[in-house]
Amino acid sequence: MPGTSPSRPPQPWMTAPPSRRRRRVLRTVGAIGLALTVVGTTAIWTDAFGAGERWERILDRVDRFIAGPVPDRSSVPTVVVTPVPTASPTARPTRSPNLPAMTPDPTPSAEPTPARVPVDVDMAADPEAVFAHELKITWCAPAGITIVLAMHGQAVASDDVQREVAARVHEFESYDDSHNGGWGPSAMSEALAAFGVPGYEVRAYETREDALRGSAVAIEATGAPVVLLAWKGAHTWVMSGFRADADPAIFPDAVVSGAYILDPWYPDISSIWGPSDPPGTFQDQGEMVRNFLPWKRPEGKYPERDGRFIVMIPTIPLDLDQ
Description:
322 residues; alpha+beta; Cathepsin B, Chain A; 2 domains; eight-stranded mixed sheet; two-stranded antiparallel ribbon; 10 strands
């Protein structure tokens, strides 16, 4: 008939019994599945295309689901720091022309003004000795806590300590601190107190400059490290020191040009943020601008933190003899 295809002999697969065809299909599907499993496992193991990161984050979400709802309880509050106004010369008081002149009181001799010289402060004499690499990509907070505990002499920077800290996260988590559950700066502060290092406040600064200056003043006052919430609040950096064009404890307008950082991510490479640096590396202004960014989390609003630079500030002097 016009328009019909010429007949052709039946192909082998058309004449095979249904059971044989089914087995052949199943073997093909199984081979494809096995290949995808091997490729996927290899990608996760080598972190190709960021697959390893995504896989661990999936496992973290599963753990969060098993743990149940995030508790709605009070925790360490976030203190919003009011920007310090720029100092301006004080106007000379004027005298009413209708009042008699007054004899000025004798003034004591003024203290000599301290010299304005650059400062370079780093309290971590041996960064490697107190460093902890995060055992899982979602464990930057337990690793950061471990580093701070080690710098305070309250623990050894070991995998066992990090695992112990991580295992207790549900004791400290709260919805206000982390809508997703798990670690936020308030939970980290509570954990530090539970492990022997109380007094860390969660502060929110309007500008990066104010946050670094406040952190530098705290390091000088306490001799203790500061915790910075880097990567828009998604990552933990421990700040052990800084460089500035003047002593920020004396000169309110001192410019902090960078910070000495212990990054728990090292030596891994992030598919988003790139490679990290060895513990104790000085991160200059460019690196601080790239990594220390205003808080912005995808899971919801945080009124005191959104758009601000979040820092955990020590308020109690470090005492290695306690």
